[in-house]
UniProtKB/TrEMBL annotation:
<dbReference type="GO" id="GO:0008610">
    <property type="term" value="P:lipid biosynthetic process"/>
</dbReference>
<dbReference type="GO" id="GO:0016491">
    <property type="term" value="F:oxidoreductase activity"/>
</dbReference>
<keyword id="KW-0812">Transmembrane</keyword>
<keyword id="KW-1133">Transmembrane helix</keyword>
<feature type="transmembrane region" description="Helical">
    <location>
        <begin position="73"/>
        <end position="96"/>
    </location>
</feature>
<dbReference type="GO" id="GO:0016020">
    <property type="term" value="C:membrane"/>
</dbReference>
<feature type="domain" description="Fatty acid hydroxylase">
    <location>
        <begin position="173"/>
        <end position="295"/>
    </location>
</feature>
<dbReference type="InterPro" id="IPR006694">
    <property type="entry name" value="Fatty_acid_hydroxylase"/>
</dbReference>
<dbReference type="GO" id="GO:0005506">
    <property type="term" value="F:iron ion binding"/>
</dbReference>
<dbReference type="InterPro" id="IPR050307">
    <property type="entry name" value="Sterol_Desaturase_Related"/>
</dbReference>
<feature type="transmembrane region" description="Helical">
    <location>
        <begin position="23"/>
        <end position="45"/>
    </location>
</feature>
<protein>
    <submittedName>
        <fullName>Fatty acid hydroxylase domain containing 2</fullName>
    </submittedName>
</protein>
<dbReference type="Pfam" id="PF04116">
    <property type="entry name" value="FA_hydroxylase"/>
</dbReference>
<keyword id="KW-0472">Membrane</keyword>
Length: 329
């Protein structure tokens, strides 16, 4: 028994060390790439920003003057109105495909081919009510709190836009914070006690659709959906322009992760779709901490993992990488 336990510990330790090495290789390769092509990349970005930077600054100046010092209203427009318009515009197209099966260009890329074809109307109505409730009574007050907290760190609606380099650095920091906070809060909500009371609601959708990205118990929505996204701009005292861009990216990203379609030229949703299918795998956003903690081992043994890539053609990956035929008896 002791020998088996020791062997198990060694195997777990070896798996963790292997994950660390792979993470270091991935990060190190990225650093080397940036070091090799950084100057060229910077030159092209500066050339683009030099041509368009004045346009955005002039546009912001007009908005800033138009609101005549009503910075709070300006902040809410950028962090509530604009992200919600982006979220619902994107989801309107997806909901059209979910409810009507058209356009076929979208539905042919469905990940779980036998699900949501079409989506259950009653189940969808219930999800929409919950999503709207969360947005109005959880998200909105959280953004209000974020405004007042951000003011302690700086002026989120200052007259000068952040530089391109700083905006990109902020987005990087936001992404890292989201990966860490979402992964561990998400795993916490999978604890049997918390799962039964809170997180089970989100997992009613074993085959998710885009709009259920924020279909969750209000407590989970606050601590696992909102906090990982909101905390970065608050800590950095970010300008509303950076915060607006980040909120929009986060909402589009989580919508894609839940949409149920592996569409061409968009990030792969296979990772999170598999989480809804199996529950105990793939807890994070980018998968870095899942690789570190070994919570993607089963996923990496599946066809879904083989399909977890950017689709650069028009042939659905369920066709180019079909499921393994089941043996008939």
């Amino acid at each position: 028994m002791r020998g088996a336990q020791a062997s198990s510990r060694q195997e777990a330790s070896g798996g963790l060390w292997d994950s660390v090495k792979k993470a270091v290789i991935v990060i190190g390769s990225g650093i080397l790439f940036l070091a090799a092509f950084g100057n060229s990349l910077t030159w092209h970005l500066q050339k683009f920003w030099g041509a368009s930077g004045n346009f955005w600054q002039n546009l912001w100046t007009k908005l800033y003057v138009m609101f005549e010092g009503h910075n709070e209203a300006l902040f809410y427009m950028g962090t509530m109105l604009v992200p919600m318009v982006v979220f619902w515009a994107f989801n309107a197209l997806l909901l059209l495909a979910d409810t009507t099966g058209k356009p076929s260009f979208i539905t042919r890329y469905r990940i779980q081919a036998d699900k949501n074809d079409p989506v259950d109307p009653e189940k969808l109505r219930h999800a929409l009510k919950t999503v709207l409730f969360n947005q109005m009574f959880i998200s909105a007050p959280t953004v209000v709190a974020a405004y007042h907290l951000t003011r302690w760190r700086g002026d989120p609606c200052g007259p000068q836009l952040p530089t391109l380099h700083w905006a990109l650095a902020e987005l990087t920091i936001f992404s890292i914070l989201e990966e860490v906070l979402f992964y561990y809060s998400h795993r916490l909500f999978h604890h049997p006690t918390l799962y039964k009371r809170f997180h089970k609601q989100h997992h009613e959708w074993t085959a998710p659709i885009g709009v259920v990205a924020t279909y969750a118990h209000p407590l989970e929505h606050l601590f696992s959906n909102l906090l990982p996204v909101v905390i970065g701009p608050v800590l950095l005292g970010s300008h509303v322009s950076s915060t607006c861009m980040w909120y929009c990216l986060a909402l589009v990203s989580t919508t894609i992760s839940h949409c149920g379609y592996h569409l061409p030229f968009l990030p792969s949703p296979e990772f999170h779709d598999f989480h809804h299918l199996r529950f105990n795998q793939c807890f994070g956003v980018f998968g870095v901490l899942d690789r570190l903690h070994g919570t993607d081992i089963k996923f990496r043994q599946t066809k879904q993992y083989e399909r977890h890539t950017l689709l650069l053609g028009l042939t659905p990956l369920t066709e180019s990488i079909p499921d393994t035929p089941t043996k008939s008896h």
